Amino acid sequence: MEELMNKRHAFLFQGVGSEYQRFLHLLDDEQKQILDQYCSIVHKEIELDLWNYLFNAKETKYDKMFNDWIAIYTCDYIVYLRYIEMNIKPEIFLGYSMGLITAMACGKSISFESGLHMLLNIYEYPQHASRKEEAMGVVVGMTCSDIDHIIQENNLKYHVEVASENNDYCIVISGMKSGVDKVMSIASNEGALKVKEVNAPYAFHSQYAASGIERFISFVAKLRVFDCMTPIISSFNQDIIQDAFDLKKELIKNMTSKMHWKASIEKIADKGIYSFIEVSLDDSLIKFSKLINTDYEFSTYNKLLKIKSQARKTI
Predict the structure, then answer these.
(1) Is 207 inside any structural domain?
(2) Model confidence pLDDT, tens digit, residues 81-97
(3) Torsion angle, CA of 153/154/155/161, rounded to 10 degrees?
(4) Could you report the per-residue pLDDT of 244-285, keeping only the tens digit for each?
(5) Residue 168 φ/ψ region, left for φ over 0, alpha for ψ in the -120 to 50 degree band, beta for the rest
(6) Is residue 110 domain-shared with residue 169, that is, in the same domain?
(7) Which terminal residue of the chain, N or C, has fewer Cβ atoms less than 10 Å from its own Cβ?
(8) What is the CATH classification number for the domain harbouring 305?
């Protein structure tokens, strides 16, 4: 455990897509008490009964997708607090989509409450603009060049875009649902190992997400943002940012810009940081990130709990 504490770590914060009900057993009684306190904050700020949603499958005034966004944000915040308590500290943050907001909250750049309202604004702003049916998807087993070729050859460049290169063979696409579906269908027929629709009704990380974004831009302009306690590497251009002004600009990019996740992980390694720790109850980021370079060390919350447990037994 002491060796782990002395390493230089990059903390990875995940985006949307996970359902946390099946991971709640990873939280101990103390953490559940803390979760209860934060659930009270959630209820006060946005009138969402997160506790009963997580533990009793109770419906809220929002849909399941948004409930899960808030569950991820809140639980990941609590996981971060446990890492700090374990004296496992980050040298740099990297957020995957929504994970940028969680990272900023953990780094005290924004308050926990501000993060809740930001997520609500992101959830609502696309509804305030006229738009066509949008979607996102994942293609596994093809390169970014392969997907770009499919898009160009089938005249889909005005319908779908590459949203993220997760690793060499895991590509996220975003755009009009008809275009996303067609790319996934062609990819599947041409040998992709897996294609899957992402649980997101809007085409984030593409030009299509810009429709209605003025509402979010206005929100960010008024948002109280501080310099982040821990530097954040941009998943868009790999710049290292910490200043409040730059972080506000990053929040806007986070809606419409293509992510370069693979390049971001490699840039962190170029700085001599080879330990990557996922700040979540899940392991969704580690699953595709560890394929970027097998020489890097990737750890999940569950793995670190087991290391901590084994360390206690040897004392």
Answers:
(1) no
(2) 999 999 999 999 999 99
(3) -90
(4) 999 999 999 999 999 999 999 999 999 999 999 999 999 999
(5) alpha
(6) no
(7) C
(8) 3.40.366.10
